[in-house]
Amino acid sequence: MVASSNSSSHPLFFILLGIPGLENYQFWIAFPFCVMYIVALTGNITILYIIQTDHTLHEPMYLFLALLGITDLVLSSSTQPKMLAILWFHDHEIEYNACLIQVFFIHAFSSVESGVLMAMALDRYVAICFPLRHCSILTTSVVIKLGAAVMVRGLLWVSPFCFMISRMPFCPNKVIPQSYCEHMAVLKLVCADTRVNRGYGLFVAFSVVGFDIIVISVSYVMILRAVLRLPSGEARLKAFGTCASHVCVILAFYIPALFTFLTHRFGHHVPRVVHIIFANFYLLVPPMLNPIVYGVRTKQIRDRVIRGFRRKKLEPGITVAPG
Hints:
The chain is mostly helical. It has helices spanning about 25-55, 60-75, 80-90, 95-130, 135, 140-165, 185, 195-230, 235-265, 270-295, 300-315; strands at about 1-5, 10, 15, 95, 175.
């Protein structure tokens, strides 16, 4: 059934196939996906709680880490519940408006995550190259403004995606051969000239991700130069260790994201199942990996988690001596 308006026609719902080619295994694939989602929720909520309750962690790196945690919670929660419903309960239908909302949240907060990673690279650059001026350069006010700019950029740049799609007519085909609604996947169902949409998508990708990757790359080149000039081998190792977790997070986010983006447009010979698996990893792995990496690599957060577990273990054994 098709809903009509003066300017466009669209289906009442779309059909999300899940993981085409692995239909017989989707039920079992959902279990590791569910575990990854639970780890993402637990880890990011834990880090947000620690940063919020420990005032000594209200510093630029941890404030950016809190913003990264919020972004990961939104990204994972906007896709994983529906994905698990598809894989476990064969709930393949998604309403038209819900699909566009999913498109908006996925792309807007992917842009925000890219911007946060850029901001964290700048923070590491200032901390290592200008350690004595770190607090005076990246004040709380500067951090808030930078975080707000990253958030506004993501929301404003992505909003036209949904607006332009909502004004276009759709073909009778309602099948989206993946686990969630993504801009290019939905655009392929449009029965009209989509060159403007595709061109705008490329503009957003290169202006957001391209700019962020350039800033991140320049930041780490400058960091590497500064680290190699340190006289002490121990100091060099410590500086490399500080940045190692950030580099892991950057690679885990950008590699599957760029693979998915490029495959949609140019990878016509890439097997569909490979594309879909990478598309799922793009939204599953970073939200799960970020709290694990930062929890292990960041001493302050690791110590708070360890103290919390010790306190929980001691509480049942605490007794009050008779007066």
